[in-house]
Design brief:
about 180 residues; alpha+beta; Glutaredoxin; 4-stranded mixed β-sheet; 3-stranded antiparallel β-sheet; globular
Length: about 180
């Protein structure tokens, strides 16, 4: 279940990612993005049975390389595209740990596209335009240390691509 710090009576989008919250993959505990204030966030919708699933490995490598400098990667499992994330939260957690050694935070499974999308994904689409909405699994959003949405990357952009890595490094260098 998705949560939004906003009152249920307001449809006004926020200007900052820190106003949004998810639940953790295991235990369904609140995971407010505000707990990552001052960090650079790469938020990625994920799936376990997708042709892009091997990106988990390079996401973990990117996380290990830059987490000490303030990078947080947040995986958001979704079954929106091709029903490629059919498992339970426990299944997803085990798959990620066993197959890819994922240690970065993961949220509970969410809807990431359409009118039922989690509020964060609706906000990102509103901020960056219709073309920025996830079209498939492993779509990525980069957020700076101030909680501002910088850019997005389609699924075909690998986490270790020079374009994405340079943008992460630039965001990490900014205070």
């Amino acid at each position: 279940m998705s949560t939004n710090i906003a009152s249920a009576n307001t449809n006004k989008p926020y200007d900052n990612a820190y106003n949004y919250s998810f639940n953790t993959l295991v235990g369904q505990q609140p995971l407010p993005l505000s707990q990552f204030k001052g960090k650079v966030l790469l938020i990625v919708n994920t799936a376990s049975k997708c042709g892009f699933t091997p990106q988990y490995a390079s996401l973990e490598t990117l996380y290990q390389k830059y987490k000490a400098r303030g990078l947080i990667i947040l995986g958001v499992p979704s079954n929106d595209f091709g029903s490629q994330e059919p498992g339970t939260e426990q299944d997803i957690a085990e798959f990620c740990r066993i197959n890819y050694g994922v240690s970065f935070p993961m949220t509970a499974k969410e809807v990431v596209s359409g009118q039922e999308a989690h509020p964060f994904f609706r906000w990102a689409k509103q901020k960056l335009g219709f073309g920025s909405a996830p079209k498939w699994n492993f779509h990525k959003y980069l957020i700076n240390r101030k909680g501002e949405l910088i850019t997005f990357y389609y699924s075909t952009t690998k986490p270790d691509s020079s374009r994405l890595v340079k943008a992460v490094e630039k965001a990490l260098d900014e205070q």
